[in-house]
Amino acid sequence: MVIKTDLSKFDEVVKIGKVIIDFYADWCGPCKMLAPIFEQLSNEMKEVSFVKVDIDESQELAQRFNISSIPTLLIFNNGQLKRTLNGYKSKEELKMSLS
């Protein structure tokens, strides 16, 4: 299951376990291509939390992480940023990045 978050809940969401954040916008073509893959993986990889942040609604978060292009994926482990992925990624690429 994919959840949406914003600045008010962000720190709590990434604090425990492995979390992947998808910074996206509704008008972004590559973001739309990534969305079903993100959803599929959320159903397959129950040990990972899948979270989306709309950059138009959460500009403060986009600025906090210097998001300059979308989609941008941030991978956290127990509150620590471990990896940043820019652009569209295939299901296999994402799975490998989360392993």
Q: What is the element layout, followed by pairings?
A:
Blueprint (H helix, E strand, L loop, with lengths): L1 E3 L2 H8 L3 E7 L4 H16 L3 E7 L4 H6 L7 E6 L2 E7 L4 H8 L1
Parallel strand pairs: 1-3, 2-3
Antiparallel strand pairs: 2-4, 4-5
Task: Provide a quick synopsis of the model.
The protein is built from four helices and five strands, in the order βαβαβαββα. By secondary structure, the protein is α/β, with parallel strands linked by helices.
Q: Helix content range of the residues, please?
A: 25-40%
Radius of gyration: 12 Å
CATH homologous superfamily grouping = Glutaredoxin
Overall pLDDT level: 95
Strand-and-helix sequence, N→C?
EHEHEHEEH
Quote the distance from N terminus to C terminus.
18 Å
Number of strands: 5
Contiguous uncertain segments of 5+ residues: none
Shape: globular
- State the CATH class: Alpha Beta
How many distinct helices? 4
CATH A-level architecture: 3-Layer(aba) Sandwich
Q: Which sheet architecture does the biggest sheet show?
A: 5 strands, mixed
State the secondary-structure class. Answer: alpha/beta
In total, how many domains does the architecture comprise?
1
Relative strand content: 25-35%
Could you please describe the fold and organization of this structure?
By secondary structure, this protein is α/β, with parallel strands linked by helices. It has helices at residues 7-14, 29-44, 59-64, 91-98, and strands spanning 2-4, 18-24, 48-54, 72-77, 80-86. The protein has one domain (2-93): 3-Layer(aba) Sandwich (Glutaredoxin). The chain contains 4 helices and 5 strands. It has a 5-stranded mixed beta sheet. The radius of gyration is 12 Å and the shape is globular.
